[in-house]
Amino acid sequence: MTTMREPTRPGGRTPDGRAGRTRPASSRPSVPSEAAAANAGVGAVAGGPTHSGRRARVVVRRIFAAETPEYFVLLGTTLFLVVFGLVMVLSSSSVESFSNTDDFFARFARQALFAAIGVPLMLMLSRLSPAVYRRWAWWAVGAGVVMQLLVFAPGIGTEGEFNNNWIKIGGFTFQPSEFVKLALVVWLAVVLARKADQGLLGQWKHVALPVAPVAAISIGLVLLGKDLGTVMIMVGIVLGALFFAGVKLRYLVLSSAALAIMAVLVAKGNASRSDRITAWLNGCSNPADYELSCWQSIHGWWALAGGGLFGKGLGNSTAKWSWLPAADNDFIFAVIGEELGLVGAVLLLLVFAGLAICFIRVMRMQTELFPRVAVGAAMVWIVGQALVNIAVVLGLLPVLGVPLPFVSSGGSALVTNLAAVGVVLSFARTRPVRREPGLVDAADSLR
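^ thats the sequence. predicted structure below, dont judge the formating
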């Protein structure tokens, strides 16, 4: 049996004068109910955890908001490499950290600090629009050149074992050439895209200007600091940007040949570098080179061989007990092979291969030249440097002093690598709209 509700008049009362169950929206009271007020009071007394938690979720959702799977795959791969690098830095540096500072975690804590700086920076850069990079590209290159000049300033520049490519301010050391790499990636993309829009990339004069003088100054200052390994990576960035911009191959071949001749002359001009290259060409077969030019390479090979198929186990490396120089930096791949074996080393190679695939997929989905060149140059930098580092450890290249991206210890390298990924993530966040050829937008047709 159903009951009939009495009709409600606009004033909110039934025909017999009693108050109706519903009222128009305009006549409803704006004062909250006692229960709602009590709940609001409880939330206010407790510091508003409901509202603060909601705001935190909104912020996190905005940071990670993206429309493409490439964004999340690239972000996840990068974060995995950072975490893996922290674990391996802790394992490979603990012995020397304790012998130098009586603290097993000294170098790990420093690396973790720079990771805590680099990851938020990466997420911040991933939110920027391409217009911001276009606007600040020239300023970034200028700032990089100025910082690179500081390595020659007395009291600021510091000299390492083989090169003078560091500045020290307070208790922190910084390698400005890493920032120059990042600036070149964005600046080359901006300049080459502008040239392409004007149809000038087919003329060698417009390809050379202003790319050649700016790149020569940036790379020349690093070369004056005797850091040949970084110079090789920077040259690769420039050639990679030119290639992805669509510059004619004959220009690239001629430039590569000229640079190769210059590299040979520079290598021959330094006695220490020349001895290392000669020992590498001889396969470190001369016993006289064992304690000089081949110590690091041979002990790196022994570490890889000692790991076998499955490794000795995490933390059980013997090479890190002061037998292998730069065990947590340039030769950390040898420690990875020793502790995690061939399986771990191959899996790391596959992760970098996956990173390269992420870069390529981001490149392929772009419709403009500027993001394609920037992503391609960043890929040459990060993936190319990883291949060079691993090739050095395996003995395929002479010792160059190039760290393994995201894995080796080194704060400036880690922060700038993460910043480069942040730039790529800003392009991967949304998928550009592709127009079918021959079709005109409705907005264009109305103009």
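Confidence is low (pLDDT under 50) at residues 1-47, 437-447.
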